[in-house]
Amino acid sequence: MEELNIINLLIILVAAWVGGSTAKKLGYPAILGELVIGILLGPALFGILETSEMISVLAEVGIILLMVYIGIEINFRDLGKASWPGLLAAIGGFVVPFALGYYTIIYFGGDPLAAVFVAIAVAVTSLATKSRILVDLKLLNTRIAYVLMAGALISDTLALIIFAGIVSFVDLGSIDTMGLIWVASKAILFFAFTALAGIYLLPLLGKYLMKANVNSRTLHFTLILIIVFGFCELAEIAGLHSILGAFMAGLFIRDGVFNRQISKEINNIFHDISIGFLAPIFFVSAGFNVTLEVFQTDLAMLVTVTLVAMIGKIFGTALFYLPSGFGWREGITVGTGMNGRGAVEIIIAGIGLQMGIITSEIFSILVFMAIFTTLTVPVFLTWTTNWLRSRGELVHQESRSGYIILGANPLSLYMAKHLQQNDEVIIIDANRELVNEAKNQGFNSMYGNILREETFEDAKAIEKRTFIALTENSEINFLATQLADEAFYIPNKIVLVSPKKGGADVDMLDRINATSMFADKTELKPWIRKISSENFEEKTIEIKESISTREWVKDHRNEKSILPILITDSEGKKRAFRYNDTIDPEEIVTYLQ
C-alpha cells in the first residue's frame, strides 16, 4: 500500500490556505482560490504538486463530508421565503442554461452523455458564492436574497437528481428497458428509504439519546459519521454515487434529530473538517487535472460555454421571472446573483472525469467557466442592486420579525413602548415582581431563566429577528446572547456593555456576532433612576447627512448626559440604536437627556 507523502500533503494544505484566504479577502469563495492555486502549482503550470493514491482517498472523503455540510446548510423551509413566481425564476435559471449547455457540446461534436454533464455544470448555482456578497451589500433581508437562496437549493438538488440518473445509466452499460426500470427502481427505493429514515428513524434516535441524557459531542459525531457512511453505502448499492448518500444524510441531520446545542456544535465540526481540511485537498487536487492547452486547442468551445453559462443563467432567470409581476429589472438582478458556480459543479465534473464520461479538456473548460462566471457575481450584482435601489425597486422581505428584550427594568420598558408600535416585543426577566409590573403596564412579558433553552423556546426565539440584552449584569447579557446566537440563530443581537472594569467587554462581541447597545459602554442604573423619577427629556433630531451610529455618539459626547435609544426611518419604522449601524438622511434619532 502506498505511504502517505507528508510533505506533499503539507504543501497542498498550505497552498489551499493561501489560495482560499486570498480569494476570501477579495470577496470570493475559498474554493475559487483553491482551484486556482491547484492549477498554478500542479502539472498544468509549475508542476510542484502532484496527486497520489492517498491524496485521492483524502479528497474523496473530503467531498463526502462537504456534501454532508451542504445538505446540512440546505433548509427546505427556505423555499417558503420566496414567492412562487420567484421559484419559477429560479427554475428558469436552471432549465435555460441546462438546455443551452447541452446543445453547445452537441454542436461542437461532443458525446451526448458528456453534454449532459456540461449542462449540469452551467445550470447549477452556488449559495457560498453569494452569501458573503449578500452580507456586504446588505441584501439578506430582501426578496432578492430569498429567491437566490431558493435558486441555489433547487439547482443543486436538480443537478444531483440528474447526476443520479447519469450514474445509473452508466452503471447499466446498455439500453435495456427492463434494466432501466430496475436501475430507476433502485434509485427511487434509495431516495424513499433515506427520506423515511430521515423523517422517522433519526428523530427517534435523537429522542432516545436525550432521554438517556447522552450529551457527549464525540459520541454524537461518531453516530452521525456512521449514519453518513451508511447512507453512502446505500447509494452505492442502489447504483448511485456516494455523494448522494452524504447529501441525503446532511438534509435530515440538520434539525429535529439532536438538541439545538449539539446540532450547532456538530455543524461546526463538519464545517471545520470538510471546509477547513479535507475539501480543500479535493479542490486543490482538482486543479491538477486542468490543462491550459484548452486555450489553444478548444478556445472557441471555452468562450462559447462560458458565454452560454452567463447569458443562459441571467436571461433565463429574467424570462421566467416576468410572470411574477416583479419586473424584468429584478429578474436580471436575480440572474446576476445566480451566475456564480461552486462546489457541487466541480464535484460532479470531477466525478465525471474520474468515470471517463468527460475528457480532461472538457473538465478544464468547466473549471475555467466556474472561475470566470464567479468573478462576475460581485461586480454585476453590485451594479444591478444599486440600479434597483436608485429606482426604489429594491423590496425588503423579512423572514423573521420581533424583539426579545432581556430585562424588565424601566429603560427596557421605555424602549419596548416605542419598538412595539411596529413589531412584536417580548420582555423576559427572572424577577417575578418586575415581570408582573410590566404585565400590568400592558407589556408582553414572561418570567424565566434566560440561560435555559426552554425560556427562549417559550418566547418563540426561532421566529424572532432581534435579541436585546439590557440588564445590569454584563456576564448574563453576554451568556444569554451567546445562547441566542448558537442555539436559535437570531440574526440581530444587541448587548448592553457596562463601563465597569473586570466585567465582560466589547472584545467578546465579535465572538457572538453581536453589537453594543447605544453604540457605547453605558451605565444602566443612572438611566433607570431618571426614567423611574421621570427626571429626563425625550428629544429627536433629523439627520441631514449619512453618518454611522458610532460617529454620531462621538459628535455628541460633549453634550450633557445623553442616551440615544432609537432610530426612526422615513417610513416610520423604529429600530434600536446600536453600534455598526448607519443613520441615513431624513432618519430621526430619538435620545434621552
Automatic annotation (TrEMBL):
The chain crosses the membrane at residues 6-23, 30-49, 55-72, 84-108, 114-133, 145-167, 179-202, 223-253, 273-292, 299-322, 362-383. Keywords: Antiport, Ion transport, Membrane, Sodium, Sodium transport, Transmembrane, Transmembrane helix, Transport. It is a multi-pass membrane protein. It is found in: Membrane. Gene3D superfamilies: 1.20.1530.20, NAD(P)-binding Rossmann-like Domain (3.40.50.720). Residues 403-500 form the RCK N-terminal domain. This is Cation:proton antiporter. The lineage of its organism: Bacteria, Pseudomonadati, Bacteroidota, Flavobacteriia, Flavobacteriales.
